[in-house]
Design brief:
alpha+beta; two-stranded antiparallel ribbon
């Protein structure tokens, strides 16, 4: 947001960030109150349209990077893959009656692996955890405090889950990671 006040208050003419200054709004907040019919028309006009002003880089909490959206039809492909594999883990043979099953990308989605049935496999939650935590060295990092290896699923990137490392990290806020 710019530091310049670029709007004039519609009531008093004072420079402000919004259409009406805070003082005028406090004196008469209901001046521009919309009717139920107006709200209904606006709602109908916006139904089904993407809210592009709050998505991706325009969202106030955007930190860069890619989105986690897998593309259209993910749920359908997800279901087809489970049916094709008979709801059975293709690594250990357990079924959905024994353990939660997942659909896993053989070639990682982040590395350009397509979301197509040929690149998907049904595996149980246990095998899925092993696949991501130990099967791919890209997920293993060294703690910046103690040097110990840890999984990148840790809440704080660069720090392992050891309490002494978390304490050291929290007390050294001036240090740039």
């Amino acid at each position: 947001m710019s530091n310049k006040k670029s709007n004039k208050c519609s009531d008093c003419g004072k420079l402000c960030w919004t259409k009406r200054c805070r003082d005028c709004w406090k004196r008469n907040p209901d001046k521009f109150e919309r009717t139920e019919e107006h709200n209904r028309k606006i709602s109908e006009a916006h139904k089904g349209k993407p809210k592009s002003w709050i998505q991706g880089s325009k969202h106030y909490n955007w930190k860069g990077g890619d989105t986690r959206w897998r593309g259209g039809g993910w749920e359908s492909i997800h279901q087809q893959t489970k049916e094709r594999d008979n709801y059975t883990c293709q690594k250990c043979g357990r079924t959905r009656n024994e353990i939660k099953i997942c659909v896993h990308h053989i070639k990682r989605w982040q590395d350009g692996g397509a979301t197509i049935p040929e690149n998907l496999i049904t595996i149980c939650q246990s095998c899925h955890n092993k696949e991501h935590k130990f099967g791919n060295q890209r997920f293993i990092h060294n703690c910046k405090i103690c040097g110990r290896e840890y999984n990148s699923g840790s809440a704080m990137q660069g720090i392992c889950k050891e309490p002494k490392c978390r304490t050291a990290y929290n007390t050294a806020k001036h240090y740039r990671w």
